[in-house]
Amino acid sequence: MRRYISRTRQTLTIWNRRRNTTMNAQLHPLEVNPITGEPFLRLRSHPNIIITPPRDEDIPAFIPLLNDVTICDWMSGPPYPYTVEHSTFWVNKCKSECEPILKQLHDAKDNPEPIIVRDAPIRYIREVKEDGTDVFIGDVGFIRCPMGELMSPKGLPLGTFDWENKQKMEDENNALPAGDPRIIWSIGDFLDPKYHGKGIMTDAVRTFLHEWGIPRMGIRHIWAATHTGNIGSVKVFLKNDFKLIFTHEEHAVAKGKMRGINLLEWKMDSDK
Ligand SMILES: CC(C)(COP(=O)(O)OP(=O)(O)OC[C@H]1O[C@@H](n2cnc3c(N)ncnc32)[C@H](O)[C@@H]1OP(=O)(O)O)[C@@H](O)C(=O)NCCC(=O)NCCS
């Protein structure tokens, strides 16, 4: 508990300082682009990489990336082949999740305490070039866990799939209010292959979780799943203090093939 309280005090000091400027302190620790007014989170170890809200112009950028087998074969969610309709749907979905949070933060600008919100106003990863322009390079989001088959009401051990109660368990997890420590979260992410292996996603997960997820969404418990064989993704989570809980070679069919699952878990230490 001690470390969390001291971090909160530190936050409030910065908070009060910012309240005296025109910047909305509710956006802390996000920065704001002075030209576009767009909030963004700068990665801790890669200052030229930022996470911003989605933009309409991102729609074409998703299409080649989610048709690239080095990306899409590791992801269960996005369809293949990935079309402009899929991309439009996805960017609009992300916008519909981020924009209300930004509005909520603006509406709460006179609130003296940082509010806890259901989601983040930021989602897409961009590289900032020397001339100040930026380019879309990936996606990272903390979402309510979509693996209800693992949250068995029958108390089955982790690693047993209860498909019958999947939807019920996801509905219960989705219904928990913002900041509820019982919420089980998951992470969805991918990065343009040109940027792989440079520590960017490890840093993106770390920065997002510690700068926004924990203090502003109240994230305390995460289950991250990867297909078996996805060494890079497993390493991203292990390097962020997740523990590998189990590996199962037959989990579910995705893109026409039976896929295995690695389940990694992160829980916030009870003393923070
Ligand atoms: C998984 C992914 C997001 C990792 O992003 P990244 O920025 O390249 O990851 P990092 O550079 O932070 O790498 C973390 C570790 O994994 C290693 N790694 C990354 N990609 C790897 C790969 N394809 N094979 C083996 N190791 C890999 C890195 O070398 C690093 O290890 P190290 O610290 O021991 O050197 C990226 O590879 C990707 O977009 N993959 C396709 C989509 C995907 O798998 N999404 C996740 C679904 S669960």
From TrEMBL:
* An MF annotation (GO) of this entry: acyltransferase activity, transferring groups other than amino-acyl groups
Limits of the N-acetyltransferase domain: 49-243
Q: Which residues form a coiled coil?
A: none
Top-level taxonomic group: Eukaryota
TM region(s), chain numbering? none
InterPro entries (UniProt xref) = Acyl_CoA_acyltransferase, GNAT_dom
UniProt-recorded name of the protein? N-acetyltransferase domain-containing protein
Give the species.
Agrocybe pediades
